[in-house]
Amino acid sequence: MNVLRRGAYSVVRKPIKSILLLLVVVVISSFFMAGLAGQSASVNVQDSTRQAVGATFRLELSEANRHTRLDEATEKIGEGKEGTYRGVTIKKFEDGAYGVLTDNSFETVIPEDAETIAKVKGIEEYNLITVATVVNPVNFKRIEDPDMDQSQDFGGVNLRGNRIMEMDMDVAAGKIKLIDGRMTTKEDKDVCVISKELAKLNGLQVGDSLQFNQWDEKENSKVYSAKIVGIYEAVQKLEPVMSGDTYRSENTIFTDMNFPEKPSGEEGNPLFRYAIFKVANVDQYDEVKEKIEKVDIDWKRYDLIDSNGNIQSMAENFNNMKQLSEMLLIVVSAASFIILSLIFLFWMKNRTQEIGIFMALGESKKKIWSQFLWEAMLIGVLGLVLSFMISPALSKMTASYMAQQSQSQAEEQKEATENQVFADGYTAPDLKLQNIEIEVTPDMLIKDTIAIGGLLFISVSVAGIMIMRKKPKEILSEMS
Fold this sequence. Notes:
This protein is an alpha+beta fold. It has 13 helices and 17 strands.
């Protein structure tokens, strides 16, 4: 009787041990598949606080990638050192503490990327929106609440630049309406649209000019002027990004795209927070999205948000989900090796009599080991088949758990920094997990098969060495 047939008979003859090994293989294979699937899962999340409006897409920086770039820069500069790398500066202050500063090039949506996407067939027009930029009002007064604590306020107003003001998110959402003049356009330069409250307080009208300079260098910085082309009324108060009067609705001044960088001391170095893309034909919305996602830009830098606020990004861009998947694979591999080695060691110890008889009949140790390997592989094949059937469901459950853990960590980090003040008005998006899309590919099946086969081979070999290194006389003596 050949080794393969003998192994098959042994599997059938010892059903309890075979079923135990089968269950172990199924569990190991399923979790290994879950780890592989988690690395390439599509995570659907929603930005519940800043949804795009209408048949549009919104491009903004990926918060996860932002942290990745920060970590890379600080590592390049070195711990306990001062320096600058790719828009990140580490500076030592007088009290001995180190601070991390970022410039506009690090924080901005790159205009060239927006222009590239705008060329996609089906995109009718696009808009670039700057961050709410704090500046000092030179020749006019801002709106102030006498009961408001201004101790932590910048004492200025905020400018919001638009390539096309009609495509601003608050304008498109109907939060403000024009009551005089017009909105800014992409042809404009050094113009602005102000609130009716600001116009009333200062006796301003369309055609007048406002002057601004740096809020932290009021005395020495250059003054820039912007001509008023329109006056708006807030149908719904614009939500301020922080307390104080600088960011209040009435002190928000809309300008052309490039004006905010000038009085803020960053001329030629703009800071765009969003890019909005308008779809020409709503019926082709999904087709346009597919074309956009194929555009050759650094997508790791961004999140693309649809008109419902939904974000679809690879799991590797969803905080540390990739690392969690890799950790799962490492843990499963290590635990599987230990468990399988112990199982086969126990298996062989309880078959000492069988081994002794085979050796007494003249069978070689290599042939006996081959039989045990065949038994393991036969059970392994059946285990793989069963695991392939349940892997999609388990993979989705595991990926969902990892995504929720990743989001929980992000929320904890957000809570830890929610009291920090950012002069550029940046607030991290409030992302809500929607669902996880898992695809079990043939490549994953091949990798899983190789991994399980390798684990079985190594485990049988390790257990076999501990038994087979004994001399025939020692094994036969143990039979008694």
